[in-house]
Specification:
By secondary structure, chain A is α/β, with parallel strands linked by helices. Helix content of chain A is 38%, strand content 19%. Chain A is globular and about 60 Å long. The A-B interface holds A 37, 99, 152, 156, 166-168, 170, 174, 176-179, 181, 184-188, 195, 201, 204-205, 208-213, 227, 230-231, 233-234 and B 37, 99, 152, 156, 166-168, 170, 174, 176-179, 181, 184-188, 195, 201-202, 204-205, 208-213, 227, 230-231, 233-234.
Chain lengths: 294, 294
């Protein structure tokens, strides 16, 4: 490898921790060497790999799709309506279609919608430093996976393009599907019944189900990622935990809890302090936030 | 590649169908060429890759483990006790332990138990022709996955060794786990609550969740595999469906329904006839059944 593999990371302790970790676990002469098949890295998605403000991209998709389907609603109505309103929105926008149709709708949306503040397409709201990290790891024999609270089908519709990951490495919450013999042959029809909410302690459980190995690197940004980072830290190998902190009101957002669902960061930050996990301070550690050319 | 990649297959139409399919979809000059990332093959496990008679290996494991734990029971008692007895056995032998402890118990069992009729260790009850098929596919850019009704944790304990597959490609039924901070750090404790029974129409749903792509090759042996084969057949690519038929009472078993759970084959065989799927007649198509050197 020539040149700096992480050009969008400023020369701070966070970058140093990443570079040193990757060098050690991939050096066959190191006591901390980890064989390639065990180099598993897991990432939260919203707020860790791309922007989750002012609302999760999937919620923006749902609101746009509801309007497109002739049933417009708003964040305010959702708040007022509570869980029944959210379920109604989910049923309207995520259910009653085949997985193929849903994927197509997601891709259409991703190609046309743009972020309300930055005016970029949503796929261009990914963090350039994290793309570089994914590339660095991939180039060093790691397999990178996403474990997100977002819907698996929604994320996969554009994850391959954005992150260069095969669909099987993008895992989120899962809704029930019904297998049926449709007009065009066998198909899976999405329902509004949620089978797995991939957050909190479910993340290690999903990692166990989908990978069956303990990761050695984990990155997250809220308390919903804490269990995933703890699970990773308990690997017998040397591990690295990254905690992305939203500190940049100018270039992205500055916040320590999610404004919609209320997910906080206090437990995660406390654990980060206790176990000396690596904090990634967006304002201080990143030279750029978004890919310049998208 | 030199020599015959499938030496344990007799020169019959089944072998010819496999060889011809692999050649076509991997030939860049063929109209039926399939790019490597889309060369997905899915296999049932019990009765398709290894012997499921006189009872599923996992049931043999459960009975052995129950005895080891001081609560011996028998098939007869299970039959008489119905579902409550089966749940009790599952709770006793599969729950209340961490995933690490359970994996270790499975590996100990696999290393010590032997098949009641053939006297071989269970890992040596795999079908040599299917091992050769997995190797052939792997050597031609396919990724092979297992989708079984058996437990994911049970299968993974020795799947890597037997089939040469990473754990993430071995998917079965899934029990709930509880994430907790144990004495030795974070751990997942298995419970007897079954979250996913990976059979029938659930197989395509699991394939969608775990792979997110449609396979182009599927192999199974009972009606529980029908939906998986249908799902595969609906791929836009050329596909191959293999139906393993147990016709060899001497070298293996001859049966068309499972004696324990009663899974039949009539719907699968009817579909195989209707869609001209490839029948694999164990007696007529396989030169040997089990690996000779184990």
């Amino acid at each position: 490898m020539t040149g700096d593999p992480l050009p969008s990371w400023l020369p701070t302790p966070a970058k140093q921790a990443i570079v040193e970790f990757v060098a050690e676990v991939t050096d066959p002469d190191s006591a901390e060497f980890v064989p390639e098949p065990e180099r598993i890295a897991v990432f939260d998605n919203d707020g860790t790999l791309w922007t989750e403000q002012p609302m999760y991209a999937q919620l923006a998709f749902a609101l746009d799709r509801a309007a497109e389907l002739g049933h417009p609603t708003s964040l305010e109505e959702l708040h007022a309506g509570g869980m029944p309103a959210l379920t109604e929105l989910l049923t309207l926008t995520h259910a009653g279609v085949t997985t193929d149709e849903f994927g197509a709708a997601c891709r259409r949306w991703a190609a046309s919608a743009s972020h309300p503040r930055f005016g970029r397409p949503y796929p261009a709201m990914v963090y350039q430093p994290m793309l570089e990290l994914l590339d660095l790891l991939d180039g060093h024999g790691f397999s990178c996976w996403i474990f997100s609270g977002g819907g698996t089908d929604f994320m996969r519709a554009f994850a391959a393009e954005i992150y260069g990951l095969p669909p099987y490495r993008v895992i989120g919450s899962v809704g029930a599907t019904e297998f049926r013999d449709g007009a065009a042959g066998p198909e899976l029809v999405k329902s509004a019944t949620i089978q797995v909410i991939n957050d909190g302690p479910q993340k290690p459980a999903s990692i166990h189900t989908h990978i069956g190995q303990r990761p050695i690197l984990a990155a997250g940004n809220t308390d919903g990622d804490l269990a995933m980072l703890q699970w990773t830290a308990a690997s017998p190998h040397r591990t690295l935990q990254l905690v992305v902190q939203h500190t940049d009101a100018e270039r992205e957002y500055a916040y320590d809890h999610d404004p919609i669902l209320g997910a906080g960061t206090s437990a995660l930050y406390a654990a980060a302090t206790e176990y000396q996990w690596t904090l990634v301070d967006m304002a201080a550690d990143w030279a750029v936030v978004y890919p310049p050319d998208r």
